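To assess whether the prediction recovers the assembly geometry, we first specified each molecular entity separately, as shown.
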Amino acid sequence: MKLERELMRGAGPTAVLKLLSGGEKYGYELVEALAEKSGGVLGMGQSTLYPMLYNLEAKGLVKSRVDDSGPRPRRYYRLTKKGERKLAVDAKQWAALFDALGSLEVLPATPRAAGGAA
Amino acid sequence: MSATLPSYWERLSTTPLHELLRSGATGSLDWRTAIRAAELPEPIADTIHAVVRGTRLWRSERRAVAEELIAHFEDGLERRATADELVTSFGDPATAARLIRRAKRRGRPVIWQAWWWGSRVALVAAVAYVGLGAYLLTAAPTIDTDYLARLNSPLEATPEAERAWPVYERLLLELDDRLGPPSEDERRRDPHPAPLTRLWARYELDSYEKLAPDRRAKADAWLQANADWLNELRSAAARPVFGIGMLLPHDTSPTMSRALGWPLYENDQRAGPDEVDYWDGWVFRGMLPHQELRTLARLIEFDFQYAHSIGDSRRAADDLVAQWGLARHAEESPLVLGALIGAAIRSMAIETLEESLTGEAAEAWTDADLLRLAHTLAEPPRPLLHHLNGELLAMRDTIQRMYVAGGGVSLRGLRGFAREIDDDYSLFDMPDNAVALSTAKLLFAPVVWTWIASESETTAQVERLHRLAVQEAATPLWEQPISAEDAYFDLVHREPQHAVLGLFGHGYRHTIEHARRTTAKVDGALLGVALELFRRDNGEWPATLAELAPRWIPAVPVDPITGGSLGYTLVDGAPVVYSLGRDGDDDGGRLPAIMDDAANADRGHVTVQRYRIGPPLEADEWEKPQPHARDRRDWYDGDWVLWSLAPRRYMEAVRGEGVGE
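The predicted structure of the complete assembly is given in tokenized form:
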């Protein structure tokens, strides 16, 4: 299932930040990880991914470097401290969103939502 | 894509300067060559090429994007994806290019961001500036109201028999005939010599006392030969109404031109052939023969001096009554200029009367004529409200010609105005006199327009100044909280956006002060006549002014500045009546050191310092910073003399020269 664009606009950057929190990655790695780990839901065209990475870099949430040591020059992206803080904030907000949707029975109730207010 | 190697010039154009100096033309920024060198399948290469070219980024940025996309697709091929699959999953190149461009620009240095936004804002501002300039050059004022007709309308119902102007005009034409055709010398001085100007040039009628004997004989002969003409002039001055409205220059009739020496305007000579004259019909363009009334008053004054010299009290009284009539006619004008001319004529009459009552010369007056003079002097001038209201209408007229309706200053209107005042901008109170709207200054017109007061703001200030002036005119000095003139001055000179008021708001300058001065001088003259009548009845001057009332004067006027009792003293046996002045101190009728003796000024004295009247000054105001020259202490440490028969040496002695009384 593909997400609507507006939802992807909110979820996509968080997903990328989360993937980078596990270590630096290059573009194609991120493409594969997004598709694989999200079951294709957060898979996005590279025409979207690379601009997103550049935006995250412009905001100071990620930082890139070029590695010439491999078979070809690759640009690796890693999370900055600011990106870590942003990821933590986004995670809380998504959790709160899921709780609310669970309370409304839009989503299956999470154990936390079922036990009362977060 | 072509597999040819880049030329030297291509490499040169894609080499950063620091690399060029160090390593030569490396072409390190050449992204096209990088794509070719990657030897990717054509669909992929074309996709990368389309994306990178579409970003329209800096060369270094495009090189970086190209390398990253090359690595991406090579990674994909390594993972056994086909070129078509990779191109399809990549997405739309145009969209990618657009998004990449936007994102990369966000990451550029702050200085670039500032330059980019600043240049856009500057461009928008430049377009707006040019647009505003075009608007200012083309937008024209809408003239809705004919204020000149409105101000002249009260005259329409006046019967011809009550109008003085037709008689004045006829008399001036007769005078021109009696003087004969203008000589070559007269025409050389003035192609349109006015009859009064010719009369003055021929007989030198400024001061009867100062004329040399032969000149005086010549003048006497003229006065005797033209006694009938002078009688008619006095009769005209007695008519109730002046009887002429304000005229525009091109309305001057040939007879009026000859009577007054005004040029004839066959066409509107001010506007260019293709230019609409937004100032045609402007109230301030309206002309009235005020100055001619003043000149006639001077002629009457000359006759007054002659009459008094020959002991003809009746004729002298007739002359002063005629001067009062001329003043009344001048004051008919709805503009403050009329009030000022009227005040000048009244002052002239009072000064002459004062001289005629000094010393033995007073014996030439009969009691009956003095009483008649007292009744004449008691006729009040036209209330200043008449002129202030007229001035307000004139200002509204000026506003409607200077502004686009409901908007800002109209440049087309303003250019015409600049042409108007180019002739005599001394009439106008402006912070600077740079009114010529040269081309260079026109370039700054939009800047001026943005901050100069709008029509509504200017109108509001004009209305406010008018209310202040009306309130001030109706308030005695000792109760006056704020001066309209000061409010006007502050507005024009300290709030630049209201500078346009300085172009036409001069009506408040000194107007109320002159009106107060005239009223006080008239009070002084009434007291002077009352003193003379008292002296004749009692053989001596009264000890106090209170003794004069109610027999010789209904009530003793109060001090026009303090509201208290007027000062009164005898100097060498001659009475001096005075206001204690703004300092409130009784200085025994001594003028402030800086002043000439206005009360005893010689006739024809060109520059006479006059007491600058105003509200009483508090003691601590002496120590305050003085923003205007007229607030200097030496202006006010003394008294304001309203009537003085004291010898001239008295005033000279107290003018700070160390000679005591």
